């Protein structure tokens, strides 16, 4: 299914590992550059600004091609309007396939045509079905998943996750008021199930080039799980979808559950992130805690905003100060010290072994010394008057 040469994908993984080893102090920059030079590679842009520039160039090319096709098809009027987005989507898929066969990967040009094709798929289905959301979400989910499987395109994986979530939402809307009422709980269960599913796939992964895509999906599930039963999200969607206006002195059904969920889940994320040393979950937990505070602040203004911000800053400073003092001398586990692997002189001796194993270097051959030793006549003496 993957269009790219798997040897090039493996080489890309090796180059990324070499960069990690170089930043960790195992190998030098010259050795990393030598590894990169010796391994065939994709036409790829690792600089995000350069990649964005090529993306804009690709988008301009895509729009130009679609504009020329539109000029040719204007005579068809209504018929062309109904099929034009399908034609544009085919153009995007075709050019993306051509660029992939030319070994363009995460370059910017390929991003423009892949995302443009997915966008036109959504427009095409929307025009055909007159904006039927559940059908649009279904076909966009299929198209984005196929694009990820074929081109390992990470943004397509994100679009797939969003489209599947939209498919779930609009599917629950089909059940009327009951579906809308239980939507938070269904979304919570869906996010939890999808999280453990992707986590299991990551643990059993044998092909490293699928890791990033699964990690994106796994991270999306963490965010969706928290937002599914966040009090602010549930209350505002309840008013929007069901028209339930919360009067003074009243609250939404199961409000205590949503209050508890809003604060317990970020705490669980934080504890789990520290226990498993998961940096992504740690950042999500910080953002979730901040949004939980904003959620309560949105409905219950206990203090003026300037006083609340001042007190919040003082509390965060105190927590940070005492945490640093507590952790700065820790040698294992959670510590404030820099990663020792980045500055360890004891590990620098491993670079010769790494380079030798990479390029198959052999130790130097021994040379015969012109001077003969040995021949001692005493026990361990080592000589008997001659060399």
UniProtKB/TrEMBL annotation:
Regions crossing the membrane: 48-72, 79-100, 112-139, 151-170, 182-202, 214-234, 254-271, 280-299, 305-324
**Extent of Gly residues compositional bias:** 373-387
Keywords, comma-separated and alphabetical: Membrane, Transmembrane, Transmembrane helix
**Which domain of life does this protein belong to?**
Bacteria
The annotated region (Disordered) lies at: 366-387
Name-wise, this protein is: DUF2157 domain-containing protein
**UniProt organism field:** Flavobacterium pectinovorum
């Amino acid at each position: 299914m993957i269009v790219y040469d798997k040897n090039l994908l493996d080489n890309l993984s090796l180059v990324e590992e070499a960069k990690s080893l170089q930043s960790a102090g195992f190998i030098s920059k010259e050795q990393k550059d030598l590894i990169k030079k010796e391994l065939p590679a994709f036409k790829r842009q690792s600089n995000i600004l350069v990649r964005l520039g090529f993306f804009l160039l690709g988008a301009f090319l895509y729009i130009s091609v679609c504009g020329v096709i539109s000029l040719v098809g204007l005579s068809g009027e209504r018929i062309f309007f109904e099929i034009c987005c399908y034609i544009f989507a085919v153009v995007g898929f075709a050019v993306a396939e051509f660029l992939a066969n030319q070994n363009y990967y995460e370059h910017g040009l390929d991003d423009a045509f892949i995302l443009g094709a997915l966008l036109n798929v959504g427009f095409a289905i929307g025009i055909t079905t007159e904006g039927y959301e559940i059908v649009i979400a279904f076909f966009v989910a299929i198209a984005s998943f196929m694009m990820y499987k074929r081109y390992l395109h990470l943004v397509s994986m994100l679009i797939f996750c969003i489209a599947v979530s939209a498919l779930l939402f609009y599917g629950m809307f089909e059940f009327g008021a009951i579906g809308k009422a239980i939507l938070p709980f269904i979304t919570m269960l869906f996010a939890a199930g999808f999280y453990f599913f992707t986590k299991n796939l990551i643990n059993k992964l044998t092909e490293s080039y699928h890791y990033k895509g699964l990690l994106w999906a796994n991270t999306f599930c963490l965010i969706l799980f928290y937002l599914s039963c966040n009090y602010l999200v549930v209350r505002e969607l309840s008013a929007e979808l069901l028209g339930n206006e919360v009067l003074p002195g009243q609250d939404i059904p199961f409000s205590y559950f949503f209050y508890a969920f809003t604060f317990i889940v970020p705490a669980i994320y934080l504890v789990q992130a520290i226990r498993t040393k998961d940096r992504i979950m740690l950042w999500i937990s910080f953002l979730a805690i901040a949004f939980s505070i904003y959620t309560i602040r949105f409905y219950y203004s206990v203090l003026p905003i300037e006083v609340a911000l001042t007190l919040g800053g003082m509390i965060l400073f105190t927590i940070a100060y005492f945490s640093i003092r507590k952790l700065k001398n820790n040698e294992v586990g959670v510590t404030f010290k820099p990663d020792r692997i980045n500055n360890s002189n004891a590990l620098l001796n491993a670079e010769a072994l790494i380079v030798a194993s990479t390029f198959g270097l052999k130790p130097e051959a021994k040379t015969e010394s012109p001077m003969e030793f040995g021949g001692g006549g005493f026990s361990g003496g080592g000589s008997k008057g001659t060399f």
